[in-house]
Amino acid sequence: MRYSVTHVVTSSHRSRGRRPTARRIPRRCARLHPRRRVAAHDTDGGRPTGRGLADDDLPRVARHGLAAGRPDDPRVGRGRRRDHGGRGRHHDAERHRGGGAEHRPRAARQRALRAHRRARPRPAAALPPPPPRPLAGGAARDPHRGDRERPGVGRDPRGRRAADGALSHAVGPGLRVLGTDHDGRRPGPGGARRSAPPPRLLLPGAAVSIGRRIAPGLVGIPDEVDVVVVGLGITGAGVALDAVTRGLTVLAVDAHDLAFGTSRWSSKLVHGGLRYLAQGQLAIAHESAVERGILMDVTAPHLVHPLPMLTPVDDAMTRGKAALTWGGLHAGDLLRRTAHTTSRTLPRPRRLNVTETLNLAPSLRADTLRGGLLAWDGQLEDDARLVTTVARTAASYGAEVRTRARVTSATGTRVEVRDELTGTTYAVRARAVVNATGVWAGDLDEQVRLRPSRGTHLVLRGSSLPQTRVAVMVPIPGTSARFAMVLPQPDGTIYVGLTDVPADGPLPDVPVPSEDEVDLLLEVVASTFTTPPTRADVVGAFAGLRPLLEVAGTDETADLSRRHAILTSATGVTTIVGGKLTTYRRMAQDALDALVGSGRLAAGPCRTAGLPLLGAGSPAQLRGLDAPTRLVRRFGTDAPLVLDAARAVTGLTDDELLAPLSDTVPVTLAELVFGVTHEGAHDVDDLLDRRTRVGLVEADRRATGPHAERALALVRASRRTPARALPHL
């Protein structure tokens, strides 16, 4: 629409011999310019002109036309009756009837709009910052910036309440249910977010056990509980936390250690379900997106960070496949929106040109590159660290969490458990027994039929693909929805994965990658990088087994559903199988809901969707902690506790406690000591393989083994000195 603005111009100079035709318009007073940088329309800044003469009061027609997103004259255009001038019902129509400046003797120029009132186009998602990585809790978030997708304060992270009533009931005293973007009350404009308080066991009917920690062995366990959980992977730890926060007494046991099985062999990703969407599994895809949002915003924001994922568009990717991939990324963004995860948590996908693509991954082949597609997903600091934190949180609420405890027989109301340290067998009565042993579930329930698949990852040094700041997704030839992933890790290593092959034969406790899988991964990524990694660059490898449910008529394990199932054996044991790491919380909720619904347990609704784990905190709170960055990234708000515990046990200085164990291993002695005192580590393997991930590289294991032995010796010595008291949980 075209329009013109007419202004009456009057001279500010008196004419000789006659009266001026109009009174001079006074200049705007300096007090009307509280922030001179905002008043962009006043080119003179309220000062006289260079000749000492007042300038004419000519309205600056170009002012605000673009910045305010509307015409300069508030009387022109569609919004002329919407009170753009801010006069509202106090507007004096008689005073402003003429519309020109000569009718307003003391009128000032139009004031500049405040910054937060200007209509600006939303910029595209910013590229990830250069290393070093930011602190835990995700990228920095501007509390001043509005977000059109931001849910209301206190809103349930899944949007509307679920039909099963989760989080729809009043919460017991001391347990605070948070929504996805619950910020608390801010002290003022621009105030920092107030983080959730640490969880407390103040639920009606729950067993209070302040200071309870994870422990190896079975000494002192109760002979009767409400729920026995067998297996302490992510699923078993999640079931223990769900049960104890409903007010039930819980005994959770594992024959080996926390995260001993599949839970430590993942890609360290919190997926949003894009692959399942491509396979038409809409329910699983939506469930994954919802659980990802809960993990990133409520449960563990200190352990799950936004990860930029780059798909290079090169000669190997046809234009049709690039368009299909771009459509899939937008479908994944639609999943994010339906899960009520804001774009501040996970930005929208965007296209990149060649320069931007090479800036994020300089090792890519530039001669065949046409651009890139950038999307975002969640990345775990460490999958075993998440399992340990969930188990430790359950213990803080009163659950008995024991390792080195093997279940030799089980029914729905009774288990026999053998202490692997002493050989003593204990009988424990229970109202319900949950089998959460993953691919080994058939050992307790013969009716379970699984088809495990093996996924292999390679471990490279960061120098193999230097300055790679994002995950790189390489399409696997011959497939439409599968990619090999190059995943940079916080400790300076890079993982290359992931295979999906059937795991036939007996199931080992620790799976071993095959040579064919190693060759396949190196071959897939070779065509994408200028100097591709070779066998000499592979410093480690690991493989995990997926507990996939057997489905009739399905040949390939990659096509098997990742949906979980709740099964009840003839003996009454409840088995939970299937699923994946991202959806562990929902799996635990469904298992407990099934037991409550059948009348075997009397408990309230699930509370874990709004329950932060130990160490969870807002980004502002994490940045404000007076603790080393590595400890904050791995322990969140418990980082000071880690250092205090190490000081109390060892009596060493901070320099010695926080020094990296070697040039290639950033792990500190303080972490190893805390793993023994608060996280139930029993030997060197527990410390190097599961409390930290040093064991993934054999050379690093050899270099840090003496440090792990020293940490164990220091803790044993402190236990012989009762005067030393450890800091509270």
From TrEMBL:
Transmembrane segments: none annotated. It comes from the Bacteria. Residues 91-105, 141-163 have a biased composition (Basic and acidic residues). Its cofactor is FAD. Keywords: FAD, Flavoprotein, Glycerol metabolism, Oxidoreductase. Residues 13-38, 77-90, 106-121 have a biased composition (Basic residues). Residues 1-200 are annotated as: Disordered. Residues 226-585 form the FAD dependent oxidoreductase domain. The keyword Oxidoreductase applies. InterPro entries: DAO_C (IPR031656), DAO_C_sf (IPR038299), FAD-dep_OxRdtase (IPR006076), FAD/NAD-bd_sf (IPR036188), G3P_DH_FAD-dep (IPR000447). Belongs to the FAD-dependent glycerol-3-phosphate dehydrogenase family. This is Glycerol-3-phosphate dehydrogenase/oxidase.
